[in-house]
Amino acid sequence: MSRHILLAVMLAAIATPAVADRYDDRVAKVLRATPLIDGHNDWPETLRDREGEKRWTIDLAAGLDRVSPRYDTDIARLRAGGVGGQFWSVYVDAALPGLEQVKQTLEQIDLVHQIVARYPKDFAIAHTAADVRRIHAAGRIASLIGVEGGGQIDASLSVLRAYHAMGAGYLTLTHSRTIDWADSATDDPRHGGLTPFGEAVVGELNRLGMLVDLSHVSEDTMRDALRVTKAPVIFSHSGARSVNDHPRNVSDDVLRLVAANGGVVMVDFAPVYVSDAYRRWSAEKAAEATRLNAPPFGGLYIGQPKAAAAAMQTWLEQHPAPRVTLAQVADHIVHVAKVAGVDHVGIGSDFDGVGSVLPEGLRDVSTYPALLAELMRRGWSDGDVAKLAGGNVLRVMTAAERVSADMAGALPATATMPAK
User: Which of 45, 74, 122, 148 is catalytic?
Assistant: First the structure.
């Protein structure tokens, strides 16, 4: 090796840590001034599913990355990730009967409040943008609540108002299934978007000051909600459809409507929404599972689950999952910022809601700084990174609060679903 090449290698080895340290310092400075707010984390629902009654007492301080299956979230890693605010998702299965959805939603909201009560040095409930800033300045994590599915109000505006009174900050208009008043992105459409009752739901959310969340909804529903809302909307956990053409993601046309509305798209980390290659592989995997065993009438190994599982393992060995990386998540962020503007993008991880597979470099809630550093490496200023981290969603919350104040004289909505 020549002296010149050796010198270049030595200089690179010396310079690289310094560059990394500079990004780390910049990220830390941003997060001291601006709370990092994640639009969507399913930790409460996952605790409920896995722990049962132990969810009320399990130690949440640290070590949940060492259990099996691991959690993406615990307090130590939230602190390491610089989290200043979190919308905790209170998701329930969209296939459940309406009243059961309401019951389980109430239990989830209660769990969030109990977690905050158990760890008052770490968490505090937030209702407003000012609350988030105050709690962050006090060194705690502002805890907000998002109801992840319009089916969870069981077509009752009274139930919606009860959720708001208990601290819910947004309603996702649908989850995975089309409901009686709104079409989902991942189910057959029935309404062409929102029904009149669905439009009334949006109006009542505006009156209450709750955010209208358009993740999971069909594009027609997105457009209808953007047409009728008086306040900026959010997409609590979605990606850019031009980067990965999943129907859960947001098209460029809708991104431009979001910009005009003043809303924010909070970019998801779930591999199936991030990577087109992973989305296609996932569909092929599901098709292969059906081909091997689909009781009661289909499959090569119908009624032979062990044989089907062995065949599936062979298929997986021959068809490994494509890599999904932090850089690909950053690609979605950059695209949203390019089309809608840097004022209209945020972070909505979906941690503890997508199983054990996450992008390389974004394994859990400790890793947000790495994503922010990646944007800095791509030329983003500290001010733009602050908008992404939390500034944009705080602006949306403030705007929704102003709309609610302007509607203070309006009577509560009384719309009902037409009788079937």
Answer: 148
Q: How far is CA 327 from the centre of its chain?
A: 18
pLDDT score recorded for residue 15: 45
Q: Which of 136, 164, 191, 216 is the catalytic position?
A: 216
Candidate list 204, 219, 224, 350, residue with the active-site label = 350
Q: Is residue 40 annotated as a catalytic residue, yes or no?
A: yes
Q: What is the band of 6 on the pLDDT scale with cuts at 50, 70, 90?
A: very low
Q: Can you tell me which residue has the tokens 């609350």? A: 131
Q: List the one residue out of 285, 286, 362, 368 whose CA is nearest residue 320.
A: 285
What is the overall mean pLDDT for the chain?
94
pLDDT digits (tens, 9 = 90+) for 252-300: 999 999 999 999 999 999 999 999 999 999 999 999 999 999 999 999 9
**72 noted as active-site residue:** no
pLDDT per position as a tens digit, 20-61: 679 999 999 999 999 999 999 999 999 999 999 999 999 999
Question: Could you say which of 136, 237, 246, 332 is catalytic?
Answer: 237
Catalytic residue selected from 40, 191, 335, 344: 40
**Is 113 tagged catalytic?**
no
Give the count of beta carbons closer than 10 Å to the beta carbon of residue 53: 8
Instruction: Locate 175 and state its tokens.
Output: 């989850």
Q: Is 175 a catalytic residue?
A: yes
- Cβ contact 361:325 at 8 Å: yes
Active site residue 344: no
| Residue 32: closest CA among 390, 347, 310 | 390
**How big is the chain, counted in residues?**
420
Catalytic residue among 175, 191, 332, 335: 175
127 is catalytic: no
Active site residue 335: no
Who contacts 26 (Cβ-Cβ below 8 Å, separation ≥6)?
Answer: 373, 376, 382, 385
Half-sphere exposure of 297 (CA within 13 A, CB side): 0
Residues 140-191 pLDDT 10s: 999 999 999 999 999 999 999 999 999 999 999 999 999 999 999 999 999 9
Whether the ω angle into residue 69 lies within 30 degrees of 0, i.e. cis, is yes
Contact 340, 240 (CB under 8 A): no
Model pTM greater than 0.90?
yes
Task: Provide, rounded to the nearest whole percent, the portion of the chain with pLDDT above 70.
Answer: 94
Residue-level pLDDT at 19: 64
Where do runs of H (alpha helix) occur along 303-380? 305-318, 326-340, 368-377
- Res 11: pLDDT: 40
